[in-house]
Amino acid sequence: MEKVTSRLAAAAIVVGVAVLGAGCAANAAAPPGGHPSAAAADSPALPNPFAIMARYGAKSLGLDHPDALAAGPDGNLYVTDLSQRVSAISPGGKVLRRWGKPGTGPGEFKFIAGDPTTPTEVAGRIAVSRTGLVYVSDSGNTRVQVFTPQGRFIRQFGSYGSGKGQFFFPAGLAVDGSGNVYVGDDQRRTLAKFSPTGKVIWQIGGSASSDQDLVGHQNPTSIDAHGRLVVVNDDQGRVLYVSPSGHKVDAFSPDSSSFGGHMCEVTVDTAGDTYVSGCGPGSTQPTLVYDRAHRLIARWPGTKYTLLTSPVFGPNGEGFALATDGSMLRLRITLPAG
C-alpha cells in the first residue's frame, strides 16, 4: 500500500458543517496489512464529515424501493429500482429520463430479490464507464445489459448456468477505465472480469478457492486510483483490493462491531479513502471511512438518515448516496486533512 501521512491526530476534530450532528464514539481502527481490527476503549471521538446539501425524496424522483446508484462522467446519477427501470437524474434532483420495463427482451429487466423474505429488496446493480456507457446487472435474467446514457440498448452478455461467462445471480458490478467489466455472482460466490465486448478474461473465488478472503459473497463496486478493483466480502467481513490481473494485492477487516447486520457496500473516493456501509432491513448501521492505510478516520452516524449505499462521487468530487428511506442525498464530505 502507498505510504501516507497519518491523519489520526486530526481524526478527533469535526470538520465541515454536518447537518446530522456530532460524530459518535469510535470503534477500533483497522491497522494496515490486512489484520483484524481490535477494540480500543480509549479511542477518540470520530468526526462526522458528511453535510447533506440536498435531499430528494423517493416520491419526488418517482422511485420505488431504489436499489443502486452510479455517477456518470457528466455528473448525472443513474438509479435502479423495483419498478424495473433505470432513472437518469441530474445532480440537482431533476429526472432527465427513464428506460426499461419488466420483461426478458433487450432493454427490459427482471430485478429479483436474493432473499424471498424481503421481496422489495431487489438486486439491480448499476455502473457507468468513463465514456458514459451504463451497465446494469439484470439479476433475474442472469445477464448484464449495456446502454448509452440516453438509454439506448447496445448489447448484453451472460446467461444462466455454471459455464464460462454464465451466472446464477449476477449482482455486484464495476467498470474500469478501459471498459472492462467486473461482475460478482451472488450464488456461485465468484468474481469474473469481462472484456468491453463481454468476453471472460478471468474468474476467481468460489468454494474451492485456496484464499479464504475469496470464499463467500464477492461484491465489486469501485475501481480505485491505482486501477484496483475494490470488493467487499460480507461472509468474511473483509474489504479486498484486486489487481487487473485477478490477484488479491491487499485486504483489511473493517470494525465488525459497528455492523449489526451485514457489510455490503464499499466505495472509494479519488484520494483513496474507503467508505464501508452495512445493510439489511431497518438498518441503523453507520458508514465507516478508512484512509489509504486502512485507519478508521470518520463515520456517518446511524441517526435520522441511514445510508443504503456507500457514497458515489461525481466528476467534481461531490458525493451522492441512497438512504434507507428511498431518498437520494447530495453530500459534501470534508475529511480530516492528511
What labels describe this entry?
338 residues; mainly beta; Neuraminidase; 4-stranded antiparallel sheet; 26 strands; 1% helix; disordered N terminus
Secondary-structure element pattern, one letter each: EHEEEEEEEEEEEEEEEEEEEEEEEEE
Give start-end ranges of low-pLDDT stretches.
1-43
Radius of gyration: 19 Å
From the coordinates shown, what is the CATH architecture? Answer: 6 Propeller
Q: Can you tell me the number of structural domains?
A: 1
Q: In this structure, how is the largest beta sheet organized?
A: 4 strands, antiparallel
User: How many helices does DSSP assign?
Assistant: 1
**Average pLDDT for all residues:** 85
CATH superfamily: TolB, C-terminal domain
What is the CATH class designation? Mainly Beta
- Alpha-carbon distance between the two ends: 16 Å
Number of strands: 26
Q: How would the global form be characterised?
A: globular
What can you tell me about this protein's structure?
There is one protein chain. With 338 residues, this protein is mainly β. The chain has a single domain (50-333), classed as Neuraminidase (6 Propeller). The protein contains 1 helix and 26 strands. Strands 1-26-25-24 form a 4-stranded antiparallel sheet. Strand 20 (262-268) and strand 21 form a beta hairpin.
Task: Give the helices and strands, then pairings.
Layout: E1 50-56, H1 58-61, E2 68-71, E3 77-80, E4 86-89, E5 95-99, E6 112-113, E7 122-123, E8 126-128, E9 134-138, E10 143-147, E11 153-157, E12 170-175, E13 181-185, E14 190-194, E15 200-205, E16 218-223, E17 229-233, E18 238-242, E19 248-252, E20 262-268, E21 274-279, E22 287-290, E23 296-300, E24 312-313, E25 319-322, E26 328-333
Antiparallel strand pairs: 1-26, 2-3, 3-4, 4-5, 6-7, 8-9, 9-10, 10-11, 12-13, 13-14, 14-15, 16-17, 17-18, 18-19, 20-21, 21-22, 22-23, 24-25, 25-26
